[in-house]
Amino acid sequence: MARKTDRAQRRLIALKAQMRVGEHCAEITIANVSATGLLARADSPPTVGTQVEILRRGTRIAGEVVWTAGRRFGVRAHEEIDLAALLGESGIGANLSQAESRPSAQTGWWHWRRK
Q: What does the alpha-carbon distance between residue 98 and residue 66 come to, in Å, rounded to a whole number?
């Protein structure tokens, strides 16, 4: 079976967020995200066709639930998701040059080594 090639590239993550359905809010975990949608987990996921709003640190994603499976569900975003804004403060969106500028285990964790 051939894979679809028109799917947007996903980023595997584990970010806590709030989901609003009407006046009801619930905590969710975003498990993966792309520019067009996301996969999330919730104790009580919304049903297919439900309009939801995902909120995380000033980032707002409005979309429609397109599938559910147990506690997992998929949301198709109404507008392109700004991945940099969503992932920026978590450190997940850090590029390689930022990661390289962090202290290494040899120099940054000196207090854990015995003298």
A: 36
**Fold classification of 11-112 (topology level):** Thrombin, subunit H (2.40.10)
Residues forming a β-bridge with 36: none
Rounded to an integer, the average pLDDT of 9-34 is: 91
Token duo for residue 82: 């700004």
Q: What is the pLDDT of residue 104?
A: 46
Cβ-Cβ contacts under 8 Å for 68 (sequence gap 6 or more): 45, 46, 47, 48, 74
pLDDT at 29 over 60: yes
Q: What's the token pair of residue 16?
A: 């806590």
The span from the CA of 52 to the CA of 77, in Å, is 9
